[in-house]
Amino acid sequence: MEKPLDKLFDKFLQGQAVFRNRNALRPTFVPDNLPFRDEQMSRIGSILGPALKGAPPSNILCYGKTGTGKTVVARYVLKLLVQKATQSAVRAPLTAYVNCRIVGTNYRVLKRLCDQVDATMPDGSEVPFTGLPTDEIRDILKKELDTDTNILTVVLDEVDSLLKRDVSQGNDILYGLTRMNSELERSRISIIGISNDLKFKEMLDPRVLSTLGEEEVIFPPYNAVELKGILEQRVAMAFSDDAISDEGVINLVGALAAQEHGDARRALDLLRTAGELAERRGDDSVTQEHVREAQKVLERDSVTEAIKTLPMQSKAVLFAVYALAKQGQKDIFTGECFNAYTDVARALSLDTLTQRRVSDLISELDMLGLINTTVISKGRYGRTKKIRLAVGKSQLGSILDSDNRLSKIAKEVLD
DNA sequence: CCTCCACCGGAAAGCCGGGTCA
DNA sequence: TGACCCGGCTTTCCGGTGGAGG
């Protein structure tokens, strides 16, 4: 009898794998050349250039929607800058990369910087990830930098998330970093801030904006042709020969991503997921079918993620809408929704929020794209919001069911 | 043309947990 | 340590409103 998985493993052995190097499709991958971003690269390059001669570069703010190449360009330019310095035997600038969405507090930003420039405690041990007064860790960083004339270029990726979490604290962090220059004897810090929110500037304290935003570089979305070019480049690196024989695959991926405001990351994700689907099924090549399937997978993942991270009250509201929809109601009005919500909240022994508040939660769910709402007038019978699920009932059902508090009450509320 | 429903959505104030400062 | 402040969440209050029915 044939052993299970035998065929599948054989395929790997015979080198028929779909991927040659799937890392080339990951967002962190920095290819050897970046098409369609020449203008941004030379802008940033010319701003950072003075660092080679030991002069502190201006700070830069990069704007652009997700997947327009901001991060990869910043990393790429820094990499080249360091290479050039090394080749020319000048002191290479120090570089550091911090993703502010992940590293959200002042202390942790400083800690990351310390780690990346090899700053250590006076006794030589690594800076602890908690416990030190923030001032002290600042001093450690400053001291380390000042051991020589260093230029430290810091990439602050997704800076806007610092302000989104906490406007005043975020401003403090940025202010602290920009001000550090005046506290350093010999070294200088320059900052490359990356934001995908164009309104980010409005939230910025004017003092911070004036130093941080000395230079601005805009990253426009990729158009369909450019996306296609990028995809072709990556496909050649990531997939085995013949794994993508159908010309339509790339076009389809490009078209789908172009709908998402030309998001290259999205395009690469799509391609990778499609490849993985093909691989898992033991197919030799990626088809348009795989791409469509991948689109669904990604879509579902993001919806699942959005719902999982919802606060309990919002989940309760969503559950109420779901319950009504399941009873066959297509259009749900705020009043009905609120009543259903009341039942759900009671069953969950949650505080029952007021209708005013629930109406705000409904708007938030709308913004997240989990439901659709329109304000309509029913004339004599008042003015209200028409609510409709924007996600498939079955999918929503299974996600909500995976929340054990909700699944417990599901039977009760759904009659 | 007016009424009046049933809710919208802005403003403001209260509550609460966490952080700061003397 | 306690007084104080801050920001987020929530409630309270309320003026505003599109259009079916009279």
Question: Mind explaining what this structure looks like?
Answer:
- A hairpin with a 5-residue loop joins strand 7 and strand 8.
- This protein is α/β, with parallel strands linked by helices.
- The radius of gyration is 26 Å and the shape is globular.
- Helix 11 (247-259) crosses helix 12 and helix 14 crosses helix 15 (334-347).
- Helix content is 53%, strand content 11%.
- The protein has 18 helices and 8 strands.
- It has 3 domains: 38-219, 3-Layer(aba) Sandwich (Rossmann fold); 223-307, Helicase, Ruva Protein, domain 3 (Orthogonal Bundle); 310-414, Arc Repressor Mutant, subunit A, CATH 1.10.10.
- It has helices at 6-13, 38-48, 70-87, 106-116, 134-145, 160-165, 167-183, 200-203, 206-212, 224-238, 247-259, 264-280, 288-308, 312-326, 334-347, 355-367, 393-401, 404-413, and strands spanning 60-64, 94-99, 151-157, 188-195, 215-219, 332-333, 371-377, 383-389.
- The strands form 2 sheets. The chain has a 5-stranded parallel sheet, sandwiched between helices. It has a 3-stranded antiparallel sheet with strand order 6-8-7.
- The two termini are 50 Å apart.
- It binds a DNA duplex (22 and 22 nucleotides) through helix 16, strand 7 and strand 8.
